[in-house]
Design brief:
The complex is a heterodimer of chains A (about 200) and B (about 300).
Chain A: H1 2-8, H2 10-13, H3 21-29, H4 33-55, H5 58-74, H6 85-103, H7 116-121, H8 128-147, H9 150-161, H10 166-173, H11 177-204
Helix pairs in contact in A: 3-4, 4-5, 4-6, 5-6, 6-10, 8-11, 9-11
Chain B: H1 3-14, H2 20-32, H3 34-51, H4 61-94, H5 101-156, H6 165-188, H7 190-211, H8 214-239, H9 245-271, H10 276-297
Helix pairs in contact in B: 1-2, 1-3, 2-3, 4-9, 5-6, 5-7, 5-10, 8-10, 9-10
The chains are: A mainly alpha (about 200), B mainly alpha (about 300).
């Protein structure tokens, strides 16, 4: 079960330094569909999570993830350094998500807090009080994320959920280090203000 | 380190982005300052909360199926576009007489060059024949000089030889030629020598040209085309599988038509090797085949 949980963790799966990614990219570039399938299996979940956090809609996120992989496949020949594939792929995902956000006017996104399927994915069943808190936390976190402006949300997601370094975030977003540090600091402050009650309650549950 | 400095760098420290020396100073400060240590603990607690956030996403088989389908469509579209471009080019090349401007210019240029070349080589022997006497003129003068030398020797010994009137006349004319040459040498000096050397160079060039007859040159050009066609055909055969049946059929028809033209023009050239028009048609047919193969081969 721990293995399953690790496999779901974005930070474990989406690293550009993961061994074999570069050789898979070389094979995929030659038209090897199996290699591209393996790349998909490695990166699909972190990318889907990243795009979902950016756009806030599951169906749209799936569509955009698909678009990201297709765009990546078409532009594999443009990738100069296979070792930077993960960063490059997140850069494409960022572009796809941003284009979608630009083309579709921002609307208040309904967040589904009673998703039993998601809760069932957890292998660490908390107490009933903990479940309620987790549900509420999911809702608050999602709402807080969507309230951040686009740049701050982008930087916050890449750092906090995907554990990218500042250099990687700069490469993905095109921001300067100074800007991304400022955005990250402000995003943290804003998120902190929103989840503060859960910080205290979390200790009690 | 002051609290202010520590708090400024605290997030970078927490994110592992500080250099080792600076990180050490922040760590030392955190160990001795409860206020900064509390801020650091708050970051740790936040991170713990964030790690509990579930993204509510699941990669389903349908997602890969969608990607795969899109990739297949993409590949098909690319292949289709490529074949369409090829088909359009073939159609524009062979279905009508409307060639594109660069192609027309290239064909005209090739035709002119080939015609000029063939005509020039075919007329080369007569040109050499006309100019040859001028080129060898000095040697005649030399002969005259030699003859006049012999005559003067004869004059100095009247008892040894008798000369008839005709011979005397020849000697006189030889002497006059020699005199003229000497006058020219005095007047021209080095120019005459240069002219002679240029004449000799031209003569040697003509000799070199004469070494290869027009027929040989045509055969040489033909062999080069045949070699190029063999090489290109090999590449094209490898690509045949990628072409759709319709394009392939059109391509084969075109090549068959060109081959028939080549066979016909070759026969005409063999029957009339000195006919420049036949040669031009044959070489143009070869050039056309090379062009079509290059097109198919994606060069």
């Amino acid at each position: 079960m721990d293995v399953l949980r690790l496999a779901r963790e974005p930070d474990v799966c989406d690293g550009a330094t993961m061994s074999g990614s570069d050789s898979l990219v070389v094979r995929a570039r030659r038209g090897d569909e199996d290699a591209f399938r393996m790349i998909f299996e490695r990166y699909a979940r972190p990318l889907l999570a990243f795009i979902y956090d950016m756009v806030g809609e599951r169906a749209l996120a799936e569509e955009l993830t698909q678009e990201t992989f297709v765009r990546a496949y078409k532009n594999l020949s443009a990738l100069r350094d296979e070792r930077r594939f993960g960063v490059w792929l997140f850069g494409i995902a960022k572009n796809v998500a941003r284009e979608s956000l630009r083309s579709h006017p921002r609307r208040e996104r309904e967040t589904l807090i009673d998703d039993e399927r998601v809760l069932a994915m957890s292998d660490n069943q908390p107490s009933p009080a903990g479940i309620l808190l987790d549900k509420e936390l999911q809702r608050v976190m999602r709402a807080a994320l969507q309230s951040l402006d686009e740049d701050k949300r982008l930087v916050f997601i890449l750092k906090i959920f995907h554990h990218k370094s500042y250099d990687e975030i700069a490469a993905i977003t095109g921001f300067t280090i100074a800007k991304l540090k400022t955005d990250l600091h402000r995003a943290r402050a804003e998120m902190r203000r929103r989840i503060r009650p859960y910080l205290e309650a979390g200790h009690e549950v | 380190m002051k609290c202010e400095d520590c708090l400024t760098r605290l997030e970078e420290y927490f994110d592992g982005e500080l250099q080792k020396e600076l990180a050490g100073r922040v760590a030392a400060h955190l160990a001795s300052c409860s206020r900064c240590a509390a801020a650091h603990s708050e970051l740790i607690d936040e991170q713990e909360i964030y790690s509990r956030y579930k993204h509510e996403v699941e990669v389903t088989p349908a997602l890969w199926a969608g990607v795969r389908k899109a990739l297949a469509e993409e590949r098909w579209e690319q292949g289709y576009k490529k074949q369409e471009r090829l088909r359009e080019k073939l159609i524009s090349l062979f279905s009508t007489a409307r060639f594109s401007l660069p192609l027309t210019a290239a064909l005209i240029f090739i035709a002119i060059i080939v015609t000029i070349g063939v005509m020039r080589y075919m007329s080369a022997p007569s040109m050499v024949a006309v100019r040859e006497p001028a080129a060898v003129e000095p040697s005649r003068e030399e002969a005259a000089v030699q003859q006049s030398g012999a005559a003067s020797e004869a004059a100095s010994a009247p008892n040894e030889a008798r000369q008839d009137e005709e011979e005397g006349n020849r000697n006189q004319s030889a002497k006059s030629v020699l005199k003229k040459q000497r006058r020219n040498e005095r007047a021209g000096g080095n120019e005459t020598a240069n002219l002679a050397s240029r004449n000799a160079a031209r003569a040697s060039q003509r000799v070199a040209h004469r070494a290869r007859t027009p027929d040989e040159l045509v055969r040489e050009a033909e062999q080069k085309y045949v070699a190029a066609i063999q090489l290109l055909s090999r590449d094209v055969n490898r690509r045949r599988r990628q072409l759709d049946p319709e394009t392939l059929a059109r391509f084969d028809q075109t090549l068959a038509a060109i081959d028939r033209t080549i066979v016909g023009t070759r026969r005409a050239v063999r029957e009339h090797p000195e006919d420049p028009v036949a040669v031009q048609y044959m070489l143009t047919a070869y050039a056309k085949k090379v062009e079509v193969l290059r097109e198919i081969g994606g060069y």
